[in-house]
Design goal:
Layout lengths: L4 E6 L3 H11 L5 E7 L2 H11 L3 E4 L8 H11 L4 E6 L4 H9 L4 E4 L4 H12 L7 H12 L13 H11 L4 H8 L3 H15 L4 H10 L5
């Protein structure tokens, strides 16, 4: 049997808070320890009560649910933030999950589903709304943009490439970087291989095209 799950409500709509508090008040083992009408108040109450679960609105006047979640997680790293919102926008959904939100529910959820999400969160089991899970899967299936070849260069190789692009010879590169000629040649070989070019001239052209020259 569940017992003593401390819940903090953070929502800028008073009627939503009243409704949630009334519904959760009938659930055995769930105790609403505080109600906040904005993010700053939510942070203060989180610091005061150290709740097990926070029901977090996403869009609020002043500090939004994303920033509030970040700060609540700093205060109570062991608490579980359940986002309860009407929004499925990518620009809101993904940042709040990255901020530390544990579960994501829509306000169309039934009272029993919210109570179950609270109990699951207290056990370390996240609940993600089906529509949210679908959007996440679609995002994961999207091909990731390929990185540019020069992004694989080390910091030293980038230095050598910039000097090559400026017209320096291998010996001049060695003198400027205070390294041996063999080391420069080693770096040049790696640069050509990583950029997929055949010689120093093509490497220099690549550097110019990608704004890497000094």
């Amino acid at each position: 049997m569940d017992s003593g799950i401390k819940v903090l409500l953070v929502d800028d709509h008073e009627m939503v808070r009243i409704g949630l508090a009334a519904v959760l008040g009938t659930e055995e083992g769930i105790e609403v320890v505080g109600e906040a009408g904005n993010g700053l108040e939510g942070i203060r109450l989180a610091q005061e009560y150290h709740p097990d679960v926070v029901l977090m609105d996403l869009v609020m006047d002043g500090m939004d649910g994303i920033e509030t979640t970040k700060q609540v997680m700093d205060i109570c790293p062991d608490c579980k933030v359940i986002v309860l919102t009407s929004y499925l926008d990518d620009e809101k959904m993904y940042p709040v999950i990255e901020a530390g939100a544990f579960s994501y529910l829509l306000k169309t959820s039934r009272a029993s589903e919210i109570a179950q999400a609270i109990r699951s969160a207290a056990k370390g089991q996240p609940i993600i709304e089906a529509q949210v899970a679908s959007k996440m899967m679609n995002r994961l299936r999207q091909p990731k943009p390929e990185s540019a070849p020069h992004e694989d260069l080390t910091e030293r190789e980038m230095e050598v490439l910039r000097l090559i692009a400026s017209g320096k010879s291998n010996q001049e590169v060695a003198d400027e970087l205070y390294i041996g000629l063999k080391t420069v040649k080693f770096h040049v070989t790696n640069i050509l291989a990583k950029l997929g070019v055949d010689d120093r001239t093509q490497a220099a052209i690549y550097a110019y095209k990608h704004g890497l020259s000094e």
